[in-house]
Each structure stands twice: as structure tokens, then as C-alpha cells.
Design goal:
Rossmann fold; 7-stranded parallel β-sheet; 7 strands
């Protein structure tokens, strides 16, 4: 039997209670990683941890409000208390434009600040908290789930697009700083994915454009559909594995052909 790609690794995944984060956590656990998962939803995190443990894996659920700048360092401390190290960080937690889509002229300043806190500042703080551990062992993988809106604009979603553009700059800059330390730093840029968050955005745009949900959904990508969360997982596993040692500072589209 082939050795699993993440056997013996410890992975911290934020925003893992649902959607892409949950799918990545399951995928990492299936490849042999022990997982620590952080998000606001306690019940969903606990169900994920129970699922992993029932399958013979190790999991730690950490309910946390990641918009609080003091929390990332505390989450990392809890992971180190349980597993004594961290090998892989996945910055997935975030806030989409679907919560409050609006033009810049009328944009809610509080929502702007919250979007940047979750989508840009939280990844920065998690990276800052995890790096000392990775630098000491001279091995690490940092993966941020960005978006194709980190490369193109988002109509009525300026805070989301600005924060995702910013996190790509963060990814590329940190990658340069640690390139000779055995640490890779990359981003994944999903297109539209079937999640609760994206459902609300599709509903908003369908109403705005005067078309049905299903009609708009079929037009969102060249492949004629949205992606499933599980379709993001193979790229995340690759970037978390030993096989990605020469891949760093990159932003990979997994988008059904939306962006190039």
C-alpha cells in the first residue's frame, strides 16, 4: 500500500466548519495528517472532528472568531499544546461579498474593515504566528485560499476583491522571505464554488440581472457549472506535500476556466 502523502503531518486549517475548508480538512485527514480546525461554528467543527476520529484520524476543534486580531496566536498556541508542532497552515477562513454586496459609493465602512480583517489580516497573523515553528524545523507549507477575484474585479464586491488581491501580495512576499528555509507559500484561487456563501452571491446576481438561479449558474464558468468544494482538495494536497518543494510564491486557479 502506497504511503499517504501527508502521513505524520500536523495541519491547521481555518474556516473549516463548512465548504472548501471542511473539504480540505477531510482530504488532509484521509492522506494521513492530524488536523486542527478553527472557525466560529462550534457544532460543525465538532462534527468534523468526530468524523475524522471515527475514521481513525486525529483532530482538534477550536471554535474561534478569527476577526479578532488576538485570536490567531491563541489558536496556534492551542495546536502546539495538543500536537507539539505544526507543519501545514491553510488560511481558508474568509468573508465573501455575498454578505453585503454594494457599489463603492455606498459601501459600508464597517463591512469593509471586517472583510479585510478576516480575508487579509487574519492570514497575515496566522502566518506570523506559525513561521517560528516552521523556521525552526526548516520545513513547512503555507497555503491561502484566495479567489479568482484576487486577479480580477468583483462587481459590487470591492472589499472582497481588494482583500483577495492583497492576500496574493502577502503570499508572494512571504514566499520570497522563506524560500531558502524549506518553506513554501502558495495560494489557490477558486472560481465559483457550491457553498452557502456563494449561493447567496449567485442569488443576488441572478436577481440583479433578471435571470433564474440555474440559468446564471450555468453561465458562471466555461464548463457550465460551479465547482464542488472537493474539486479544490487535490491542489491543496499537492501544495501541502513533499512533492511541492519547488513550488512557491504561486497563485493557482481552480476555476473551471473563468480566469487565465
Amino acid at each position: 500500500m502506497a504511503r499517504r502523502k501527508l502521513e505524520g503531518r500536523i495541519a491547521l486549517i481555518t474556516g473549516a466548519s463548512r465548504g472548501i475548508g471542511r473539504a480540505i480538512a477531510r482530504g488532509f485527514a484521509a492522506e494521513g495528517a492530524a488536523i486542527a480546525v478553527a472557525a466560529r461554528s462550534k457544532a460543525e467543527l465538532q462534527s468534523l472532528a468526530a468524523e475524522v476520529e471515527q475514521a481513525g484520524g486525529q483532530a482538534l476543534a477550536i471554535p474561534a472568531d478569527l476577526s479578532d486580531a488576538a485570536i490567531p496566536a491563541r489558536v496556534v498556541e492551542q495546536v502546539l499544546e495538543r500536537f507539539h508542532t505544526i507543519d501545514i497552515l491553510v488560511n481558508n477562513a474568509g468573508l465573501g461579498s455575498s454578505s453585503r454586496p454594494m457599489p463603492v459609493l455606498y459601501f459600508d465602512d464597517a463591512f469593509w474593515n471586517l472583510s479585510l480583517a478576516l480575508n487579509l489580516t487574519a492570514p497575515y497573523l496566522f502566518i506570523k504566528a506559525v513561521l517560528p515553528v516552521l523556521l525552526e524545523k526548516k520545513w513547512g507549507r503555507i497555503i491561502t485560499i484566495a479567489s479568482i477575484n484576487g486577479k480580477i474585479g468583483s462587481f459590487h464586491g470591492s472589499a472582497y476583491a481588494a482583500s483577495k488581491h492583497g492576500v496574493l501580495g502577502l503570499t508572494r512576499s512571504v514566499a520570497l522571505e522563506v524560500a531558502r528555509d524549506g518553506i513554501t507559500v502558495n495560494a489557490i484561487c477558486p472560481g465559483p464554488v457550491r457553498t452557502e456563501m456563494n449561493d447567496r452571491r449567485v442569488e443576488y446576481d441572478a436577481k440583479r440581472l433578471g435571470v433564474s438561479f440555474s440559468e446564471l449558474e450555468s453561465r458562471l464558468t466555461p464548463i457550465g457549472r460551479r465547482l464542488d468544494p472537493d474539486e479544490i482538495v487535490p491542489m491543496a494536497i499537492l501544495l501541502a506535500s513533499d512533492e511541492s518543494a519547488a513550488i512557491t510564491g504561486q497563485a493557482f486557479n481552480v476555476c473551471g476556466g473563468v480566469a487565465t
